[in-house]
């Protein structure tokens, strides 16, 4: 028995001391582990498994590892070596010099700086480089550690190589979308303004002249009505293409608004502005535009400003070109005008800019406030809800009505911020006062902006618990100008429980069929027909007709500008539902319920 144990122990020692076979991979390692000492064998097996898992992880992550020894210029690759298949001959990438020639010039320059640095400690690095492949250009990210020799120069680089072509292309796509107009592919307004600013500064420093033109497609609204919105988009695209085809390579074009395109002429004389304008107008009007819905004859009007003498900044240049455009369009279709300095216009512009500054400051300081005017029941004279009327509180304590700043805010594109602020104040008051309903106005400018309307809906949706006490007022003309968008907007609001009113009804040309299609809840009869109605037989006939028709469509009616008891009684006899006017309640900034 003892002899038998001794023989087994001797055999085990012999096996443990026997040289391991030269087989590779997990099979070979397992074979070695079985023949090794028990503890050493288990360790070898675990190490092999970890190595295999790491290799699989690298392959799954599409990472190729590299170990580049600089003295012999050899690179050992491991992991996802499929990454190297982008090279026409991957074996050549085992030499550092060959690898460097595969890189673009910018990549080689970055890598050379890493190799030529003289630092006595290990340091991490990361570079992106472009390389050629049989399938086209590819991009890689190279991350690793630089290990120096005794003199501080690079002796070894080790790390991973990762293909990032898709990521790079997506970043380029997002950059393109951020700077381009989605419909035409030309620069968007923000990017065009940046280019214009750079062009003006270059012209100043180089003592040369340039110009900015804005071209507007004439009567695009009529094309919308006659051919549909799809045809109008095709017209905008075609006009943009025709204008671009007549420009020099150094000129820049962008879309600044729905029917407007801006053009930067980088180097031109004052006389050339008119020649370019003639060429652009002819490019559009000389040939009809074919659309899916029919053939369209289009024209453009052009406003221009000579720079830098005509304007000192990009914002000023755009405003003055728009001013010239207004004069060009005043004479009819296909007009042209260049900005000329006018003391009267300059004073008007300065007033406009001053008002804009006041609006921005008031927004920042929370000095845009509401005056609340009651809407009362025509029978009981009880308040049913309040209309929120914007006011600006000046720093001296005076209060300014909306009519003194909203037109300027609309003209300068600030009204979206103002309307958003009004919505947020309305929602806040409804949260603070559970027993009131409030009406908030949406301006004509924002009513035509789909993205703003969507943000309005989203904000109400986020505060859905007060939605049933919100009444949204749209002006009649705004609702008609963008009928399809308005109808979708109204539908979303009513789904959340909001009510919708058409303001200034009777001032435009809305048919009751349009009202029926919009599915609004009430109409507010324009005050110009209501004020002094008891003394105007013509207005009495008109208002009574509106009220009767509204009742047929089950719409509530509000009479604005009710100014006397006599007018109120007459309107009540016509069947009006609600009154609004100074006679029944003036707009008040701090009514009792707000104080509570």
Description:
It is a single chain. With 596 residues, the protein is of the alpha/beta class. It has four domains: 2-59, no CATH class; 64-170, PAS domain (Beta-Lactamase, 2-Layer Sandwich), CATH 3.30.450; 182-341, Reverse transcriptase/Diguanylate cyclase domain (Alpha-Beta Plaits, 2-Layer Sandwich), CATH 3.30.70; 367-595, EAL domain (TIM Barrel, Alpha-Beta Barrel). It contains 23 helices and 21 strands. The strands form four sheets. The protein has an eight-stranded mixed β-barrel, surrounded by four helices. A five-stranded antiparallel beta sheet has the order 2-1-5-4-3, sandwiched between helices. A hairpin with a 4-residue loop joins strand 1 and strand 2 (74-79). Helix 8 packs across helix 9, helix 14 (415-432) packs parallel to helix 16 and helix 16 packs parallel to helix 18. The longest helix is centred in the N-terminal third of the chain and has 23 residues, at 38-60. The chain is elongated, with a radius of gyration of 37 Å.
């Amino acid at each position: 028995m003892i002899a038998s144990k001794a023989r087994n122990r001797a055999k085990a020692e012999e096996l443990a001391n026997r040289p391991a076979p030269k087989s590779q991979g997990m099979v070979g390692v397992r074979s070695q582990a079985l023949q090794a000492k028990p503890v050493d064998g288990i360790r070898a097996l675990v190490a092999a498994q970890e190595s295999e898992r790491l290799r699989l992880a690298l392959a799954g992550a599409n990472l190729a590892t590299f170990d580049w020894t600089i003295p012999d210029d050899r690179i050992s690759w491991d992991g996802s070596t499929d990454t190297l298949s982008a090279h026409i001959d991957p074996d050549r990438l085992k030499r550092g010099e060959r690898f460097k020639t595969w890189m673009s010039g910018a990549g080689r320059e970055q890598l050379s700086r890493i190799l030529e640095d003289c630092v006595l400690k290990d340091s991490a690095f990361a570079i992106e480089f472009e390389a050629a492949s049989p399938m086209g250009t590819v991009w890689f990210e190279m991350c690793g550690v630089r290990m120096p020799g005794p003199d501080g120069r690079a002796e070894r680089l080790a790390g991973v190589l990762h293909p990032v072509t898709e990521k790079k292309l997506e970043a380029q796509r997002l950059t393109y979308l951020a700077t381009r107009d989605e419909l035409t592919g030309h620069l968007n307004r923000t990017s065009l303004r940046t280019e214009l600013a750079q062009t003006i500064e270059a012209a100043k420093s180089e003592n040369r002249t340039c110009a900015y033109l804005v071209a507007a497609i004439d009567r695009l609204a009529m094309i919308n009505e006659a051919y549909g919105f799809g045809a109008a988009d095709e017209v905008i695209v075609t006009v943009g293409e025709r204008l671009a085809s007549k420009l020099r390579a150094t000129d820049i074009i962008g879309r600044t608004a729905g029917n407007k395109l801006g053009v930067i002429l980088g180097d031109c004389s004052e006389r050339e502005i008119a020649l370019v304008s003639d060429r652009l107008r002819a490019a559009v009007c000389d040939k009809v535009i074919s659309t899916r819905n029919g053939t369209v004859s289009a024209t453009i009007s052009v406003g221009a400003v000579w720079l830098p003498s005509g304007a000192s900044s990009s914002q000023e240049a755009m405003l003055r070109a728009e001013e010239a455009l207004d004069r060009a369009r005043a004479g009819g279709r296909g007009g042209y005008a260049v900005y000329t300095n006018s003391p009267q216009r300059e004073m008007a512009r300065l007033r406009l800019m001053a008002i804009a500054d006041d609006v921005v400051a008031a927004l920042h300081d929370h000095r845009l406030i509401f005056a609340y005017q009651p809407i009362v029941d025509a029978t009981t004279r009880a308040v049913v809800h309040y209309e929120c009327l914007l006011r600006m509180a000046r720093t001296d304590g005076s209060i300014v009505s909306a009519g003194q700043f909203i037109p300027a805010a609309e003209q300068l594109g600030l009204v979206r911020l103002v309307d958003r602020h009004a919505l947020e104040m309305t929602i806040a008051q409804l949260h603070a006062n559970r027993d009131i309903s409030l009406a908030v106005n949406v301006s004509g400018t924002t009513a035509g902006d789909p993205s703003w309307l969507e943000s309005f809906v989203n904000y109400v949706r986020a505060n859905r618990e007060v939605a049933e006490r919100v009444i949204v007022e749209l002006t009649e003309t705004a609702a008609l100008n963008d009928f399809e968008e308005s109808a979708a907007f109204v539908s979303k609001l009513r789904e959340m429980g909001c009510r919708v009113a058409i303001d200034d009804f009777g001032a435009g040309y809305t048919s009751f069929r349009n009202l029926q299609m919009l599915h609004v809840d009430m109409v507010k009869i324009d005050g110009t027909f209501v004020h002094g109605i008891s003394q105007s037989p013509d207005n009495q006939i008109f208002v009574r007709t509106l009220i009767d028709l509204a009742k047929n469509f089950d719409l509530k009616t509000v009479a604005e500008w009710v100014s006397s008891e006599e007018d109120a009684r007459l309107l009540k006899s016509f069947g009006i539902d609600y009154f609004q006017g100074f006679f029944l309640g003036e707009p008040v900034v701090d009514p009792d319920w707000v104080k509570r």
